Amino acid sequence: MLAQLSRFRRSFLDVREGEYGRTLFVSLYLMFVLFAYYILKPVSRALFVDRMDPDKLPGLYMLIAPVGGLLAYVYSRVTMQISLKAAVNAATFFSIGFTVLMGYLIKFQWVWTYYVFNIWVSMFSIMMVTQGWVLAANVFNTREAKRLYGMLGLGSVIGAGFGGSFTAFAVTLIGENNLIYFSALITLLAYLMFIGLLRVPGVNLEKAKAHEDEPEETFSFGDIMRDIRHYRHLQVIVGIVLLTFIVDVTVEYQFQVFAKSQFKGRELTAFMGSFNGIYLNLVNFVFQFFLTAAVVRWVGVGGVLQIMPITISMTSLGIFFAPGVLSTSLARLTEAATRYTFNRTGMELLYLPLPLDLRNRTKAFLDIFVDRFGRGFGGLFLQVFTVWLAVKPRELSLVILFFTASWSVLAWMAQREYLRSVRRRLESRTLDFEEIRISVSDPAVIALLESTARGDNARQAAYALRLLGETEGYDAMPLATSLAGSRLPDVRARVFSLAAQAADESLLPQALAEIRNARAGATTASIKPAVDYALAVSPERQDLAARLLNHPSGIVAEAALAMQPADSITLEWVSSMASSPDVAKRRLAAIALGKLGDTGTPLLHSLLADGQVSVAEAALTTAGALRKRVYLEYIVQRLADSQLRGPALDALASYGSSIAGTLRDLLEDPQLAANIRRRIPRALEHMRDQRAADELMAALSVPDLTLRAAVVEALSRLRRAAPELNFGPAAVDREILDEAKRYYVLAASIDPFRQQTSATGAMRLLASTLEERLTETLLRLFQLLGLRYPAAEIHAAHRALKGRSSEDHSAAIEFLDSVVDREAKRYLMPLLDDHAHVLERAKDLFGIQRHTLESALRELIRSGDPWLVCCAIAVAAELKMSSLKADVLALEGKAGLEVDRLVAAWPN
Amino acid sequence: MAELNIVEKVIALEAVDLFKNLSGEQLSRIASIAHQVHIAPGRTILEPKREVDSLYVILDGEVALVRGAEMIHTAKQGEVLGSWALFDPEPMPVEARAETDVLLLKIARGDFYDLLSDNMQITAAIFTTLVRRFRQLAGS
After folding, report:
1. Does the distance separating the beta carbons of A765 and B11 come in below 8 Å?
2. Are A95 and A127 in contact (CB under 8 A)?
3. Contact A768 B10 (CB under 8 A)
């Protein structure tokens, strides 16, 4: 009980430094909004019930569902276009204005005003209350929200309570009209809290959106219908939601009719105020914060879904045998309170075993449409029974009993479907535990997980054990203890992890046995968790760790080393390990050097050059952690090894941007192997800071095209990963111009080859290579544009230009035309035109002349691009172009082995 | 026959279905690890019970493919022997025997893997080809 109270206090009052202002103003904002709403709600309902015949109520329900839905849709579309700040401003002043207008119009007692007022109040709830929570979501991050939402919820509860009790107290003194005006005043107070919130340091709502636009776009009606037809689980959910709202409308009708029979005029408003604002709110609060979680744990999803139909059946029987305001109030209280608490939680859990994408789209659909459709259908149902068939309110209880019986059957089916879905997802191990935390408390699910944990399927069993271990309030140790001798290593691994988490020493003998049995080179999954556990709980952990350091199993020794304090490791011991012929011992030495620091420099050099991947990998990690320049050369050399490239890149990234300049020097060093230089941009990219970005920008001047492509690629990725970095607009503009010029030069070179439509052999190969070069140059150009303009949109435009849709193509050109600045457009836009136009612009802009076949080949032979040179020589030889002989022979000994072979074969 | 130059090797490799999504320049990298091999008539190139560790492109000559005593095909210039050998060392169910003087371009699996590890784009293009082939097989 004390723990529960402490948890309760923490969930409400854990406000930290820097959060006070925001928490205060958002709580007060919600409190005043709810205050105003709980004045308007009872007043609107009471006025309608008091001034109109009961047979008009079904019509009101039928009207509120579609009109309210339509207005909510229009409101969401409008707010999608504007910021949250603008939406709050607009909604507040519109609400105040409309509320004052309604207060005035109600005086005339025109029939239509009661309908409009009730619809307006449902709209107020969507605009102001929902918006209040959107505001909270934008002011607090996810971690803060988890802690502070209890406090904000408390503000709402107090506001609703105040609103209801104030209405009950004040209506007899000032009347309904003045109450409506008063609610407008309270709304203004809420707005003042909003203004106060904006002045709190760190709160900036200029860029916050009032409404996210994804849900509208993420599902189509046809898809949802198909999903519902396909999944029985969904059919059951839809059935329960429909019945919930039909019964809701019917119970509300009975309540209002009997309230009218007991109270008149202002008394009725006072009663409605007390009922909604105080009693219903209080019961909801107690149920939600003190009972729901415990009841869910106790009776499970199936049980919790039965609560609502069973309690409504009982209260409906009460109405049938003792009709009156007391029994209908009790029924309404039970219905509304269980719907907002137990049923809502049960329904949320019911969705969880569904695949995430299916869950998201169907839940949005059910929340938006089925809810309103159910209420509208409830109104129609009431119209048929009460107006056309003249069924008395008391007799409606029997009809409700029929509905609740069907509901109960559906809830039973829901539990079966739920377990079936959990089992299926457990088998495929796709249960998202973060989201299913509460539902794992369900007794049926726990039984299922326990039996899975004892099963023969290693992965499923370990997974089930993990889920159980993370379940709040579940003691997994008895089960873990019984599984400590499992023949499945995955299960034993999980058992030792659980025991370590629980600091339970009882499994120490089993863990030591596991360690004793570990062979050299064995990779059994349970070894490391056993060592970690033994070293965590053993009373002689230091001695044990020292003993295990010499264990023949590398896994055991490494886990033991991790527990050793740095001063207990000696250079002598590391040296003896480093010179051992045993790979595991050399790897251990490489790891241990991380604890010794610089003392072991010569040793680490030799380990970095070790021929065994696992040793060199550990040495790279250690070198990265030590961040000493003496290791740089060794690390860079390892970039050439495909098996060590990843660890080498990580090690270089660990140094941070202090080595960015050195890396650029290496990138530009022609003496360094090309396959190493090509990887350096990636290392700079991993650093993700301004200095690395500056060095990459400077490296764009590298003449080698392959290297330039790697640099542009790295810059492009860096831009997407760290959009806040500055790439220097003027420098990027220069590079864009250079790249565009390259494109024009290539386009001019390719022209004579495009005219050779029936080319074969080397000629065809050269033509296709030039086409590829053109495509690659355009890609680099767009990657550079992405550094200067919105990256995602520029990449999308590039994709559209490569695609086949002429519509997308036009849209991309339109976009570039509107985004790219005038100077860049001059040479960029013609590139996207037809080939003849490109050649014309090449001449106008850069004076690039069209080529003959011979001049094009000469230029390619002189280009310095190894592959293009090879192709060009082969074509010249094929065509026996003796006029190019001097150019070809001039390359001898200068352009690599393959070119030399071609030159040597050149006909004399 | 004289040693092929790099461009000629690339043109020969264009015939390999597995490489059909590669650009000329990417093929030139594969060409750089491809070696010319001469096989005398009657010599066996692939044996049914021995692991296959290389792919061969026939540059010249004829190769008989025999299953048991039955001759199932005569492979000629441009055809490929052991195209899956680059990924799967399992022995082929047929014997490949030189019928005439045969000139082959040989790509060893180890060299090929080294090349792939250094050239991500080649790896991606080969994956694309393999996935398309799987799709075709699944579709048929």
Report:
1. yes
2. yes
3. no
Please give the pLDDT value at position A439: 47
User: Chain A within 8 Å of B140 (Cβ-Cβ)?
Assistant: no
**A507-724 classified as CATH 1.25.10.10:** yes
Please say if the pLDDT value at position A436 is more than 50. no
Spatial distance between the Cα atoms of A252 and A374, rounded to a whole number of angstroms: 14
Q: What is B6-139's CATH number, 2.30.40.10, 1.10.1040.50, 3.30.450.20, 2.60.120.10?
A: 2.60.120.10
Interface of B with A in 30-59 (CB under 8 A): 32
Residue among B2, B3, B6 whose CB faces A870 most closely? B6
In this prediction, residue A188 carries a pLDDT of 92
Contacts of A898 in chain B (CB under 8 A): 5-6, 28, 32
The fourth-level CATH superfamily of domain A218-427 is MFS general substrate transporter like domains (1.20.1250.20)
Q: Where exactly are the structural domains of chain B?
A: 6-139
Determine whether the interchain pair A867/B24 forms a contact, defined as Cβ–Cβ distance below 8 Å: yes
What residue of A is the nearest CA neighbor of B14? A765
Pairing verdict, β B44-46 and B95-98: antiparallel
Confidence of residue A219 (pLDDT cuts 50, 70, 90): low
Query: CA–CA distance from A603 to each of A94, A390, A585, A628, A631 (Å)?
Result: 75, 96, 13, 14, 11
Which residue is associated with the tokens 């899975």?
A452
pTM of model > 0.90? no
Instruction: Say yes or no to pLDDT of A147 above 70.
Output: no
For residue A161, what are the CA distances in angstroms to A32, A36, A123, A281, A696? 11, 11, 20, 7, 62
Give the tens place of pLDDT for each residue, A828-864. 888 887 777 888 888 888 888 888 889 999 989 888 8
Which residue reads 């944990």 in tokens? A453
Same fold, A218-427 and A507-724: no
What are the pLDDT digits (tens) for A225-260? Answer: 888 888 888 888 888 888 988 899 899 899 988 988
CB contact under 8 A, B6 and A768: no
**How many H helices and E strands in chain B?**
4, 8
Q: Which of A713, A764, A867, A869 to mutate to test the interface with B (most CBs of B within 10 A)?
A: A867
Domain boundaries, chain A: 19-210, 218-427, 507-724, 731-788+820-904
**Does residue A164 have a pLDDT over 70?**
yes
The DSSP element (H or E) to which B55 belongs, if any, is strand B54-60
What is the CATH T-level fold of the domain A19-210, as seen in this structure? Answer: Growth Hormone; Chain: A; (1.20.1250)
**3-state DSSP assignment of residue A322:** coil
The residues in B 10-29 lying below 8 A from A, measured between CB atoms, are 10-11, 23-25, 28
CA–CA separation, B15 and B30 (whole Å) = 13
pLDDT higher than 80, residue A97: yes
User: Mean pLDDT throughout B83-101?
Assistant: 83
Predicted confidence (pLDDT) per residue in A561-576, tens digit: 888 887 888 888 889 9
A509 or A152: which leads in pLDDT: A509
Name the maximum alpha-carbon separation found in chain B: 44
CB contact under 8 Å between B7 and A772, yes or no, is: no
- Calculate how close chain A gets to B5, using CA atoms only, in Å: 7
Give the range among A151-165, A384-398, A501-515 with minimum mean pLDDT: A151-165
| Interface test with chain B among A613, A639, A642, by most B beta carbons within 10 Å | A642
Task: List, for residues A292-307, the tens digit of each pLDDT value.
Answer: 777 877 777 788 889 9
What's the confidence (pLDDT) of residue A216? 43
Of all residues in chain A, the one with the smallest CA distance to B6 is: A898
Q: What is the pLDDT of residue A141?
A: 66
- Inter-chain residue contact A642 with B118, CB threshold 8 Å: yes
Q: Could you tell me which of A154, A179, A171 has the C-alpha nearest to residue A282?
A: A154
What ipTM does the predicted assembly reach? 0.84
